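Teaching assistant here, posting this on the class forum so everyone can see the example we discussed in section. The complex has three components, and the goal was to see what a joint structure prediction looks like when all of them are supplied at once.
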Amino acid sequence: MTNALIVDAALALLVLGLALWVIATRAAYSAVVGFVAYGLLMAIIWVRLAAVDVAMTEAALGTGLTGLLLLGAAARLAPYETAEFDRRPGRGLRVLIGLLCAAIALGLAAVVLLLPAPAPSLASLVADNLPPTGVGNPVTGVLLAHRAIDTLLESVVLLPALIGVWSVAVDPAWGGRPGSLPRPPASSALTLLAQVLPPFGILVGIHLVWNGADDPGGKFQGATVLAAMWILVLIAGLREAPALSERRLRVLLVVGALVFIGIGASGVWRAGAFLAYPEGYAKPLILAIEAVLTLSIAATLGLLLAGPPAGDRPIRKTS
Amino acid sequence: MDLAALLVTPFARLTELGGLLLVIPLMLPVVGLLLAPLLRGRWLGGGLLGRFTLLLLLLGLVAALAVATAVLTGDEALKYYLGGWLPPLGVALKADGLSAIMLLLSAVVILAVGVYAQREFQVPPDASETRASLVFWMLLMGVWAGLNAAFLGQDLFTLFVALELLTFSAVPLVALDGRAETLAAALRYLLFALLGSVLYLLGAVLFYGTYATLDITLLAERISGEPALPPAIIAAAALMTVGLLAKTALFPLHLWLPPAHAGAPPPASAILSALVVKASFFLILRLWFDVMPGALTPMVAQILGGLGAGAILFGNLVALRQARLKLLIAYSTVAQIGYLFLIFPLAARAESAALTGGMLQVVAHALAKAAMFMAAGLIAKALGHDRIRDLGGCVRVLPLTLLAFGLAGLSLIGLQPSGGYLTKTLLTAAADGTGQGWWGLVMQVGGLLTAAYLFWVFGHVLFAVPSTPAMPLKRPGRAQELVVLALALGALLLGLVPPALFDLVGVGRAGLEASATVATAMAGAFGWSKLWGDVWPLLVVGLLVLGMLPWPDRPAGGSPRPATTSLSVSGHWAAVLGTLLEPADRGLRQWPVAGLSFLILLLALAAAISTGA
Amino acid sequence: MNDPTLFGLCGATLVGLGLYGLLCQPGALRKILAFNLIGSGVFLLFGVIALRGGGVLAAAGRGIDGDPVPQALIITGLVVAFAATSIAVALLLRLAETSGRTTLENEAPPAPSLPGERASRPDGES
């Protein structure tokens, strides 16, 4: 047993312990806090698995933004928890489901142990086909050149999600300002943080996107940092959230994917296929797409957290 | 150049594009989705967004027709490599006959819904947009984009993203009216669909771990070269199948469907029942017929067929007990989805008939169900409610709508020459031919039960006196009624389509003679003895059902007394059936119980697949 | 037992735990958390497969090991999971506001009111 293996075993045990905590603990708020800790440890595991891009995305998006969303929800749903607990399924049902889940986990574990070795891989194929794309980071190459359609569709997926979040608003509030972000009482510490941090955050975000072409990084990580800075400013009350019917905001949301499609369509004439890049222009085009897409995704992620447009409504207690 | 040439030449150019043609149906709805938030205001007397969507839907129909024509005339599947990268590195698009049919079907149904919904989601003159109109039109295009991507994609991960696009667009449509029940129904739908998606993804992960590719064609090659299925592939197949079954709402995993489809606004219900559930079914077909055809063991086939039969019987029986029209139609969807899974036990030795019958069921059900939901929407808007018991008297206001509802019902029952009739004949012939006649029996019973609840509805419409005094009845729009009628007629007359066109089913697939089987099926359809043989059981059912209807007394003066169920023999049987089935349905639709069924099914399928490996 | 296998077993356990939580916990927020656990378990399995497929790039001196295709797909999956979580949370919060409950049990048969009625009435009315 090498040292690395001991460290990994410790990480794995910690992660499993936290996952158990998330499932078993009684209060939703503590479950979410456990989930955030779990996510940060997962990010470390990703680094151990030599997937640094994934580690950054997990830390920023999977843990950071998701955690923020769930913490806010847990706080707002706290009054309803006791009623929830009373509606648990009976013990017999839970035991049965637990046994079957354990069986499935065991089956999966067996499958993992029986995966073919030597493992088949596309790594060499990607490495061979990376130079035409002009980028040095193979993950970016895969995301924006070889499997560009997945990235395109996934940027598009965020839009119905955003509309879905907006759709739960009431009609009179439609088009107004989103209301789900917490507004803690004015505090000098928060104001200071929101004044000092965002410029650095924006720099870091841009750096992540720019650097992602050749080193770990990329538009999702950069966009998340930008969105986080914006949310920080909103929470501290330094700016008001924009009204959701504003034309500039709407344009910002869709321009990234539209530019992506436009460049992809031009590839039909200039490079022979949809979503192909002409010789020698691949890297600048990829960087252009990433830049615009970062702005759109940052806006979308921030708005997903900001919630549906709202007037001032109290939460109804259970009767 | 005369007009015909003017129209035909661009169309001919389109079909000559070859693989590039596939990019159009893929990207058209995506572009529409992206432009939608920017389109505010009014145009041509209605909302700009609604009119623009209609235009886009027309273009999409042309594109789908071009794809179908190209595939049929070329007699081979269209392929396209996105970005110029070949699999396993890149992602391919492929349109074989099945994809072409589904593309065309989606284009037609969504166009019909688009016409119908122009009036439902209007933008008033003083506002530039409303919540309902932006949300509906954007999510309609999201659904359309997800559908086209699911029908054209050849990569398991791209298909995952397409499914998610579809789910994220469909779920908020359910909760569009903002009531607590529809919000709960939407949340239940979302969480169960997410359970399905994440296990589908796990299956895709295991496929990659074994073969380092997610391309369907490459996977098929590598799997067919194996002497025995690796354990990872067995697990992957089971996970993906059960995950997709959850999204298709096959019995007993149907818990989310009735409240979601009944609670959505009528155009959304039409899309959900007609198309959204068929996308995940289409992926199941891709998995078992394209990726791993050799792995379809008899055990697996019987399990899937058995669940389908269960869906047919259970869904139809519970539909009989519904008090609300939209819930009845939703349970009818649960039942009709069951017919689709009868393909699997029949495909081993009668592939032509099974696959053609199954695709016919997809098309006929989509057309008929969309018509029924939209008709129910018109009825509900005119009367102010959709209680079956109080439907009496609406014939005066909605003759066309009720005619369309009835014609769509005839297709569901399976009367000639409807698509339903072709489905039943083909599948029954396949069942008898392969020595599994019990599937045919199940379909017969299913048809009779469908007839029963349709007679139930029409009995109330024609003979019952409404218990509440007549409210001012609002007429539906002429375009809406005509669109509903057109869809219903499409379902009813599907059997009259020239058999040669059915060869589309077999394009890209070896050895399928769809047109021959269809021609045989339709050959004796209109013989007197055949007609009588099909019709007399329906008449018997009709009489039984009419006996159960409440007959209000007519006293000498004064208002009619409230209707009561007659105490006939059929009434007693109905009551007994109700006491058995409703608790069963309620039990199955509890989240932990449905989850338990999910897990049991997963393990059972994994065991069944490994018996043949 | 080496690194990938260890984390692969960890991923399998996470999937099982998450499944249990998704099916057995009554509150919708806990179900959403459990779904995220299952998702992260699946991504972990994918990451293990990515690591097993590596070695080529390190040998070429690029410094980063692992099969880049699964890593790219995991990133896409993380974004999709976040989108799913945000829709679910929005629906849940609104459900709690309008009805005061946060569980998904079958409600009583709905009252026979207008089926397609839009929420154009002001909020607060039941």
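For the discussion questions: The CA atoms of residues 100 and 106 of chain A lie 10 Å apart. Chain A touches chain B through 66 residues (CB under 8 Å). Think about how each of these relates to the inputs above.
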